[in-house]
Amino acid sequence: MRIIPPITKNLLIINSICYLAYIVLAGRGVNLNTLFGLHYVQASEFYIYQLVTYMFMHASFMHLFFNMFALWMFGGVIERTFGAKRFLTYYFVCGLGAALCQELSQAAMVYSLIAEQGGTLSDLLHLSPFDRTALNGMTTVGASGCIYGVLLAFGMTFPEERMFIFPLPIPIKAKWFVCGYIAIELFMALSQQSDGVAHVAHLGGMLFGYLLIKAWRKKSSSFNGWDGYEIKEKKATILGKIRQWLHLDRDNNTEEDLNYGRQNTTAKGKQEWDYNTKQKKEEDEIDKILDKIRRSGYQSLTEEEKRKLFDRK
Residue 71 carries which DSSP code? Predict the structure, then answer.
C-alpha cells in the first residue's frame, strides 16, 4: 500500500469501507445500496447525490474485488501519468458519465414498455406515483464505469504496451485489449439478454473518459498524459523569467538592453536561474523518457529511467 499513489490508495480504502458497512448494516435491516445506489431518475427513491455515491457501493464481494483489482493494476499508473488532481477529476467524470448514460438507457427501456401498451412520450414524462414506486427496483451500484474509463486511459496513453491476458497464450497490445472490451460491452448492451450488468454504464464511462482526454489534448498540444500541462506551465514560467531578466519583454529590444540585463542580474536572480536551469534539465530528461515510452513501450525503460519518472515532484 505504501507504493500506491494517494488517490488510488484512498479510492481502494473508501470502496472497501463502504462494502464492509453495507455488509454490517445489512444484518441490521439497513440496505445501503438502496440508500446510496443510483435509482432511475423518475423513481420515488431517486436523489441527486446518488450520481456520486453509487460509485462506492457494490453488490457482492466479487463485484468489489474485480473492480478494485483493476483499479490497483491500472489506477496507480494513470494517476502517476495524469497527476493526482487530474486523475481524480478524470475518475469522477467517468463515473458521472456512466451514470448519465445508464439513466438514458433506463429511460429508453421504460419508454419502450409504455409504447408497447400504446402510451406516448407524454405518458413517460407524467408517471403515476404507483409507477414511480415500481421503478425503485432499477438500481445501479459499482465503480465499474470509473474503472472502464481508467482502462481506456491506459489504452490511449500506452497503446503499444503488451499485456498478458488469461487465457490467451501470447501478449496483446493495450490498444487491442481496450478495443476488445469495448466490442464485448457494445455487443452485450445491444443484445436482448438481461444479465444484471450495466453494460451501457461501462460504455458511458469509456465515452466520457475518451472525450475528456481528447479535450485535454486539444487544449494543450503538449498533453500526452505524464503531467503535460504542468511541464508546459513550468516551461512558460521559466521562459517568462528569462525574458524579464534579459529585458526581452520590451517592445523594442536592442543589444544594449540585452547587455544591461545580463550585467545587472542580481544574486537572487542567479540563484533562480540556476534552479530553473536544473528544472529545465530534469524536464528535458523526462521528455526523452516519455518519447522512449511512446516508441518502445514502458518495458523498455531502465531502472534509472523509471526512478526518474516516478520520483519527480
Answer: I
